[in-house]
Amino acid sequence: MSFTVGDVIAERTVHLTRESLVRYAGASGDFNPIHYRDDVAAAVGLPGVLAHGMLTMGVASSVVVAALDPAALILDYGVRFTKPVVVDPQDGADVHVLATVGAVDDEAVRIDLKVTFGETTVLVKAQLRVAI
Fold it and tell me: What is the helix (H) or strand (E) element at residue 104, kind and residue range?
């Protein structure tokens, strides 16, 4: 696979539900009730039940991983969390991921992720480095 700065590697919208949050809590061991109880989220001043930050981060990277060769080696992955993903009890939440080539050198390609929930960017400086 060849990489050129600006190329779109992958783009996908991932739908999260309250069931997604419960499943992730079980897999990760993160049973903080802000991720599944509206009353607790409201009591601590949150706008609703939030998706786990690490779930959002994992969803974003999975979009890229699915587009790469199965033998690809991810060297580094980092993000900054900026805004939460509020998961509605009926409608869930759609997280949109756009992955583009940000830089290429002799050893690796940097893939920049734009991760949004509605019109809000939820992760910034979201970048994967993949060995070439």
Answer: strand 93-104
- The SS3 assignment for 7 reads coil
Q: Which amino acid is residue 125, in one-letter code?
A: K
pLDDT digits (tens, 9 = 90+) for 27-59: 999 999 999 999 999 999 999 999 999 999 999
Consecutive H or E run containing 120? strand 120-131
Tokens, residue 44: 């601590």
Residue 48, Cβ density class (10 Å: 0-12 exposed, 13-18 middle, ≥19 buried): middle
Helix or strand (DSSP H, E) at 110 = strand 108-117
Provide the β-strand partners of residue 95: 14, 117
pTM of the model: 0.94
Lookup result for tokens 């699915």 = 66
